[in-house]
Amino acid sequence: MTAAAPVITRFAPSPTGHLHVGGVRTALFCWAYARRHGGRFILRIEDTDQKRSSEDAALGILEDLAWLGIHWDEGPTWVPPHSAAVGLPPHSAAAGVPRHSVAELDSSSVGGDPRSVGPFFQARRLDVYNRYLDRMIEADLAYPAFDTAEELDALRREAAARKETFRYRRRPGYDRDAALRRFRAGEPCVVRFRMPDEPVRVTDAVLGEIDFTEEHLDDFVLRKADGFPTYHFAVVVDDELMGVTHVLRGQEHLNNTPRHVALQRALGFRTPVYAHMPLIFNADGSKMSKRDKDKAVRRAMPAAADTQASVMAATSLSPSDLATWLADKTRQLPTDALLSIARALDLSLPEIDVEDFRRSGYLPETLCNYLALLGWNPGLKNADGTDLERFDMAFLAEHFSLDRIGKSNAKFDRDKLLAFNQAAIAALDPDDFERRWREWCDRYDPELLALLGDRFALAARAVQPRIRTLGQCREPIAFALWPDDGVTFDEKAVEKHLRKGDPTGLAVLRDFLPTLESLADFTPDAIDGAAKAFCESRSLGMGKLAQPLRVAVTGSTVSPGLGETLALVGREGTLRRIIAALRLA
RNA sequence: GGCCCCAUCGUCUAGCCUGGUCCAGGACGCCAGGUUCUCAUCCUGGAAACCGGGGUUCGAAUCCCCGUGGGGUCACCA
């Protein structure tokens, strides 16, 4: 290893909403690359679009990243909302994968500015950009342009009519002195870059060398009329000033790269290593979009006005809000409203943002693991010869490399994510699972916490092996949430397991009842032990006792293990439910 | 439409750079069995792909060209 300049990467989201999966992967790779090379990972907020950016969104992104365990070395400081360490998930190893040790800063806050290269919100760096801009105007590398939107539109239409690409270039007769006079007088205008008339070759670590000819490069805007820099300008200036050596971003930015390279040359900046990664799409091939949630609800929305009204009752939306939303497919409803409508329609929304996945109950390490595999592959084998694809953050930090990033776009496969999540949940230490489930409930389902009370630990053991996401935890133990006299019996199950058979299930239940009444501890192990002894003493198969009990206590033939099921309902509840079932004869 | 990128099972991919060991391997999903008190697990087996056409070569999934298909991008958004 040579003593080359330290690697510095950055993730630079614009704060217009929660982080979505594409952004997560970009951040993850930037993080991993910096870690792999002992470098630094910067988080920078690109809030140069005043209309769309919000502080809330920026905060949301910080929280999303922190939750995922993608911690930035430099950037806005973020402190976990509660006490230290709570918000920072420990990255336990995925199923079957040994734990990798990594030197991870375990302080409770993330971010900071040790090199004094901030601030990290671009809106607070206008003076920086203006300094460079003034210099460029002075050198005639940039110039004020006073075209109106209408004039630009007309030019664009003309080009389209000639079947040419529209490309803005400073006209030959441009009167620089006059323009500068108007500019200094404060006349509103944009400032454009004088794109040199030469081709630009972009070298990309993933895609190789790509040539762009000058006839497709234009004098793009550096500073907007509102005084804010454009993305192109801010990104180039900031990357230079912050010492960014490697730019990892989505392929949608590939066509921007020659602009950035040309700008860097004009300013005498270094050109970082670029690595453009493939895009992520929905399973149906459509682009993943925040509007997908609206789309799903729209599709499920009943046509009749009165049913619509009842669905809307759960939200604070007015009928006119609903009407405009229904009429305009580009409109989005607030997430809260979408969620309550979805609940009313018994519809599950597609997960798009990090927050969606978190709410559904995916583990952060699963999300990172799965997303890392979308467009990257370690190219290693497990001991049994299968491909290594389950790994943790430490592994990524140790093995991530640009040359194993793929070139083709990938579809997001929820089934595989689900499989990963299930395996990761199953592999958790039971106490760890309980703790993390409790945290999830705190945030998303406090009612469940209250319903379970001191049975929570018991429920955690029962639920852990049978769920794919934390959000599914109610299902396997639904029977334990009903009142003891509120069991709804599946008639077919009652017929088969209680009324029929020789002896009938009801007879077996009656026989077993005293055992349950006198059991010293009403714990899963004690119950299972007693059940087993009971069956052995009568040469009965376990199913002959277990199924009638299950039906009596839960109403159905499906539940967690017998001991867990009865213990969850409790001795008193179990006895009451059995006695009620005996009356079904 | 111009420009740019991409192309292996349904999906994610390994293999491609450094042609032969590939009648193409793994994972998820699917199908069929098996274990277990049900469920979920777990185990075993199975179906399933080199986009098409030319070339180069003794030999091509691997190299080259063309075609086709998919995607990105063409803003005072990022």
Explain the overall architecture.
The chain is mainly alpha-helical and 585 residues long. Helix content is 45%, strand content 9%. Helix 13 (364-373) crosses helix 15 (414-427), helix 20 packs across helix 22 and helix 22 (542-554) packs across helix 23. It is elongated and about 105 Å long. The structure holds one RNA strand of 78 nucleotides.
Write a brief caption for the model.
This protein has helices at 21-36, 55-68, 126-138, 149-161, 176-184, 231-241, 257-267, 291-300, 305-312, 319-327, 335-344, 354-360, 364-373, 393-399, 414-427, 430-444, 446-452, 456-463, 491-499, 505-518, 524-537, 542-554, 562-582, and strands spanning 8-11, 40-43, 75-78, 110-112, 142-145, 190-193, 200-204, 208-212, 221-223, 246-250, 273-277, 280-281, 410-411.
* Unreliable spans: 83-106
Q: Choose one word for the global shape.
A: elongated
How many β-strand runs? 13
Number of helices: 23
Helix content: 40-55%
Strand content: 5-15%
Structural class: mainly alpha
Distance N terminus to C terminus?
A: 80 Å
Radius of gyration: 31 Å
Biggest sheet strand line-up? 5-6-9
Mean pLDDT: 90
Q: Outline the biggest β-sheet.
A: 3 strands, antiparallel
Fold blueprint:
Layout (H helix, E strand, L loop, with lengths): L7 E4 L9 H16 L3 E4 L11 H14 L6 E4 L31 E3 L13 H13 L3 E4 L3 H13 L14 H9 L5 E4 L6 E5 L3 E5 L8 E3 L7 H11 L4 E5 L6 H11 L5 E5 L2 E2 L9 H10 L4 H8 L6 H9 L7 H10 L9 H7 L3 H10 L19 H7 L10 E2 L2 H14 L2 H15 L1 H7 L3 H8 L27 H9 L5 H14 L5 H14 L4 H13 L7 H21 L3
Parallel strand pairs: 1-2, 10-11, 12-13
Antiparallel strand pairs: 3-4, 5-6, 6-9, 7-8
Helix pairs in contact: 1-14, 6-7, 13-15, 16-17, 16-18, 18-23, 19-22, 20-22, 20-23, 21-23, 22-23
The chain binds one RNA strand of 78 nucleotides through helix 4, strand 8, helix 6, strand 13 and helix 15.
